[in-house]
Amino acid sequence: xxxxxxxxxxxxxxxxxxxxTIQTLLGKERADLMDVSAITVEDxxxxxxxxxxxxxxxxxxxxxxxxAKLKLLKEADLxxxxxxxxxxxxxxxxxxxYLDAMGTLYDTLLSCGVTPVGQWPADGYACEKxxxxxxxxxxxxxxxxxxxxxxxxxxxxxxxxQLDGQWL
Length: 168
Prior knowledge:
CATH class: Alpha Beta
CATH topology: Rossmann fold
Number of helices: 5
Radius of gyration: 14 Å
CATH superfamily: Flavodoxin domain
Shape: globular
CATH architecture: 3-Layer(aba) Sandwich
Largest sheet: 7 strands, mixed
Strand content: 15-25%
Order of helices and strands: EHEHEEHEHEEEEEH
Number of strands: 10
Helix content: 25-40%
Distance between the termini: 9 Å
Oligomer: single chain
């Protein structure tokens, strides 16, 4: 079984906590956890399966560490790798830019030739629009710790079960 690389960027620690939860649920013997601020091209090339976590700030801005590493994604050999995303944002205060950073990351990864999996239904979310929405589905798991933290554990569990049928 191929190991899974979980890469996250976290300014306040919330995205890191979600990444740690995902690693715990997958099992530390199956998944490695890495802060995007410290990753290298070699780290990305080592995994066939990657889970990438990003948060959206303000009016759709990407978390700073991810923004600094976008160029690195283009330098890595990601062609054909299976990539899943999870994103955090505030769907109420930023209803028109909710998870835009995840949309930006997704578009960057598509240009690198990845095979994206793990899309998530947009039903039940209050956002008005998002670059992470494609045909009424988010490009990855959509989380809102500001307004719906009580739904996070259930959403992660359902998403991982979905991924189990796709590539885990």
